[in-house]
Amino acid sequence: MVDVEKYHGTGNDFVVVDADEDVPNRRAFAVELCDREHGIDHPASERRGADGVLFLALEPAYNPPRIVMTLVQPDGSVAGMCGNGARCAAKWAAERTGADEVMIDTPSGTRHADVDGDDVTIEMGAPVFDPEGVPVDRDEPLVEETVEGLTVTAVNTGVPHAVAFVEEVDAVDLESVAPPVRHADVFPDGANVTLASPTPEGGFRQRTFERGVEGETRSCGTGAVAVAAVAHRLGRIEAGATVTVSPPGGDLRVTVEEGNSYLEGPVVFEFAAEVPTVETDPEPVDASGD
Question: 3-class SS at 285?
């Protein structure tokens, strides 16, 4: 049996596993637990399954404490970064160490987090528009161009996003529109597809179709940062301004500065449980996104 906990950040939910736990097949474990029809369930949780499994190796001797974070997604692939997942990881570490600061090592780099009760702010790094850094298969940045019928801007905020500003996010059939963009040839590693529409208060509503989840999630932290980064690139907001980005799961606050960005929002603990290990390997997954 494996001890697990479940957290969510504005509805983006994750099973958290201490990396010291014996999980011989992380891919199979994540695929089974994340399944929305047959995955992990508990009376304290709003819904079955999860958007990913966070394997966290805590190194408390550092000041501030450090975590090595590995996110295995519902399809068995490993994500380079996840804003809400990193915020959940910071909260998990803070509860074990009593610290109000945490350093998180991810495949996309080391990120600093501040924990203030249930509110967690994570450093997200500088958004990247350079074609090689997104990546996109071209020589110039992809800005406000049509890809598979959707006008998008490509940016990497830890993972690649194709961001489209629309009049009203709820008027778009995301499940139909997003997959062709997500798999478009111009994105050699695939891309998350994020829609945004302005709010009267000066923020943005957001919906994201996530690569690796292969569907819409209630919240996406890298997507919220991508919305703000593209809004700044297009002159919709000023550098250094903090804007509210609202996915279906709740409000996130994003600040994009020259050379860095920050994501802030609540983290909620749902439950702790024991689950069996999983030995059977799932079907192979193309982690490149092709």
Answer: coil
